[in-house]
Amino acid sequence: MLERLVYESRATGDFGTLHLFHLLTHSQGRNERLQITGHLLYLNGRFTQCIEGPGDRVETLWQALQRDPRHDQIELLMRRPVTERVFSEWSMAFSTHASYYVHGMRGFFPLDDEERSPLIALCSA
């Protein structure tokens, strides 16, 4: 059975372009191994992430995310079973300001303003 989980958290430090690039690259590799897909939004020092995949693997990743020192004030917004993935093509899509783009960053969807990514809204539907 597939599950979808959405959470928000506060970054514990400043995340520059290079740091975000490494975070995204590492997450994409890990998620591919776990058969997890999803989307990460970084905006104004806050993360919002949607993860989806087999329930046991979502749980494994959720436990790891709660121990990750790069963020705190983690709030679970939604967790439920689903019949299909929203981000089936992305082990980790990523949205933030266009100025953070690094050439070759897979799955990057720039934001034009301060609003939440429409991709994250898909997770809550």
From TrEMBL:
Transmembrane segments: none annotated. One of its GO terms (molecular function) is FAD binding. SUPFAM superfamilies: Acylphosphatase/BLUF domain-like. Gene3D superfamilies: 3.30.70.100. Residues 2-93 form the BLUF domain. Pfam families: BLUF. Coiled coil: none annotated. InterPro entries: Acylphosphatase-like_dom_sf, BLUF_domain. This is BLUF domain-containing protein. It comes from Aquariibacter albus. The lineage of its organism: Bacteria, Pseudomonadati, Pseudomonadota, Betaproteobacteria, Burkholderiales.
